[in-house]
Structure formats: C-alpha cells, structure tokens
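ok so I'm stuck.
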Amino acid sequence: MPAMKETIVIATRESRLALWQAEHVKALLEHSLHLNVELLGMTTRGDQILDRTLSKVGGKGLFVKELETALEEGRAHLAVHSLKDVPMELPEGFALASILEREDPRDALVSNRYASLTELPQGALVGTSSLRRVAQLKALRPDLRIEPLRGNLDTRLRKLDEGGYDAIVLAAAGLKRLGLADRIRSHFSVEEMIPCAGQGALGIELRADAAELNAQLATLIDRPTWLATQTERAVSRSLGGSCSMPLAAHARWQGEQLQVAVALGHAESPERPLLKAHLQAAVRSDAEAVALGEQAAQALRDLGAADYLPAA
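replied:
not stuck anymore, here's the structure
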C-alpha cells in the first residue's frame, strides 16, 4: 500500500475575504502541487479589536500573529495573508514562500448615493481607517470629513448601508474577490491614490525550516508581482514603515522597466502637503528590486521625510 500523503494545513482568519483567499490557495495547491489541504480557521487580535484604529493597538501585524503561532506550534503548515497586512520584517524563523499574481491594486470608492469623489458634496463624511488613504483623500478633497472605519469587509459595507457614511474607501481587490464589484462606484487611479505596499497581492508564509514545502511553494511565485512587491516593501522597510505611517508605495511594469510611485503624508497633520516621488529602473533580480525601493525611500528623505516620520 502506498503511504498516505501528509495533509497540509492552512491557517487563516475567519472573515469571508480571508476564507476566500485561503480556499483560493487550497485549490491552487491541490491542482498544481497535488497536495491534500485543509483549513484551520482562527480569530486574530486584529479581528477582535474594532473600537480603535490599528495604528493605536499594534498595527497590521495583529492580523498575522496568531497564525504564526499556529505555524510555530505545528498546528498548521502555512498561512495565507493579504500581503499588505504582512509586516515588512517577519519574525525570526518565518519566511514568505510565495507571492501570487496580483489582483487589481487600486482603491475603490463605495457609496449608495454618489458615483465619484468629485460628486461628494462639501463636507461629506468618508469612512476609512487607513492613514495612507486619509492623507491622499485630504490632498484631493481638503473639505471632506474623514472618520475611522474598522471591521471586515462585510462589516464596513453594512456600516455604509446603515447610513453611517456618505462613502467609504476599500481595496478593489477584496470586493472583486468576493463578487462585490458592483458595489464599486468608481476606482481611484494609482496616480491619484497610490496604493500601499503589496495591495492586491496574496502572500504565503511558512516556517523557514520547512525546506521541502518552501521549494514546492516557490514554483507558484508570480515573478512580476514578486519583484514589484519586493520594491514596494523595501520602500516601507527603509522608512520603518508601519500602519502608523501614511506611506504609499506602488510599482508597476512598463516593459522591463519597473516604475515605482511613492507618497508620504504627515500622520498627525494630514492637511500638510504630500511628499511624492517617482522612479524607474530595469529590474531583473530581487537585489535590483530592493535597491529601487531603497532609492525611492531616499527620494522621500530628500524631500523632507524626516519631519513627517513618527518620532522614534
């Protein structure tokens, strides 16, 4: 009798979007790598704390810590994350094994009454808890009132539908993955609202010592997305990026040239002018991707980023 194949367990948050992402990866592993796969649903601290902004309670890492504990204890073999939620520095003993092809990286305006940002009336109330979005919305429409909006995607849509906001801003990728693209009234171009590092991409994390599984997952890497997000994450890492910093970084391909756009707002004074820079370079390797990101971070420093960054 042949030996039974080991079952690979994916640790995942239990929100509808997180489960969609985990099921997507499960199907990919079963189809492409012929693995047996199960899901382990978990609730993270980030899911539990909804009355404060992430920047005040520990950052986006709150969405991954419990999943990493499951990996560390051997209850799961890998975790699937929205890459934008993954801290720039992983804890010792963990690695990003794969980054999959990116979905739409743009931000989207969702409203039951208004079709675009320009249609919002003076002083309209917009919901978002992203400091990056706050800074860029203030640059586009200084008159808007912007209030925090926490919770999973369904919760945010419910709060809008209950009349709490004139509009909310969400990642287009999550809406599209859940079949909710019809809720999008308009997309922000990546020029007017630069996405955050990793937005729209899925990352697969595992223990660094899981060499065989790491090698298998590496075959699923979408190389253009991997290099682009390496550049974006290098910008954030170089500036000490966290969700307490209104930092945007988005890279996209033009032939063999990778173009990166970055913007930095002031966390405590979102009305201050955005610092913005655009760079491009031929990128063929991880080292070149990281170097481009570090150059973009330096361009922001040259524009005065030190005055915008949180005190150490």
